[in-house]
Design a protein that fits this description.
Elements: E1 40-45, E2 49-54, E3 57-62, H1 63-76, E4 82-91, H2 94-100, H3 104-109, E5 113-116, E6 121-127, H4 136-150, H5 155-170, H6 180-191, E7 206-210, H7 211-217
Length: 221
Amino acid sequence: ALAPYPRTEEAASISWPFEGVGAEVAVREPRAEYVAGRVDVLGQVDYTYIIARSPDGLVIVDQHAAHEQVLFERILSGQERYPINPPSYVELTAGEAEFLEPHVPLLNELGLELEPFGGTAFLVRSVPYQKLPLPLGELLEKLAAELKEAARLPEEALREKLAMRLACLGAVKRGDILAPEQMQALVDELMSAWSPSTCPHGRPAFIVLSHSEIEKRFLRR
């Protein structure tokens, strides 16, 4: 997952997991074009919105919703998988382990590779994040809670629900400072996504202020 931009003047090089890598769509259908041509990032507003320009006008991107959709598609397709070496030992409560253990194969497909390790313990062998957004124990607790609520869903719906939860936890948040190259990489990845217009929860990931709308606002038409 994307880490917030460092608040010190150090660390000039920033690791970004999506740069130069196209998204593999989970649904095998042609992707619709939402913004024509190149989208060039101009800056960040309130550490929440990315402002960019395109041939269509100004593009305003919600950084959390955008990153959430990018991660959702990649996690759902099984692309996000980072080994933990050595595997990490996590002890859960009996109730959490009860909800988690039957769905270990499904979580493995999403990049979270777990191995039951006796009693209520698990070994975590891989995660769908380049950088963990929260401690592993807390991550498994949140997934167990999600499974408790959604246990009766059909397999495919449950798979999407878990991918949504993993993406939401790993996405950049409102208030995270992003470097210009991080913003450009995120916008490029969003525009190559299968469904870039919204996040998995249905919120807009970006809006476009067209040239004609901008001119109307300035009473030029």
